[in-house]
Design goal:
Elements (H helix, E strand, L loop, with lengths): L9 H10 L6 E13 L2 E14 L7 E12 L5
Antiparallel strand pairs: 1-2, 2-3
């Protein structure tokens, strides 16, 4: 059961579902775009944070976070 899911875009959801086979325990997905300058190049980094609900027979459940980060050159290729 999905408790709360703020869908940022389909790419984020697809990435999460490829990394974690079971997508039924999503609690929240957050995406951030960070622009950084590395040397003379600008790099756009996408950070994805996922709150995931894990079933736990003793405590009833715990919330767990995962973070992905991708590096990609910005649109003008610099």
């Amino acid at each position: 059961m999905i408790v709360k899911l703020s869908i940022v875009n389909q790419w984020t959801i697809d990435l999460y579902c490829r990394a974690v086979p079971v997508c039924t325990n999503l609690v929240e997905v957050r995406e951030r775009h960070i622009r950084q300058t590395e040397g003379d190049r600008q790099v756009e980094r996408t950070v994805i944070r996922v709150e995931e609900w894990k079933q736990n027979s003793i405590a009833g459940g715990t919330s767990q976070s995962r973070t992905w980060s991708t590096r990609q050159p910005n649109s003008n290729g610099r």
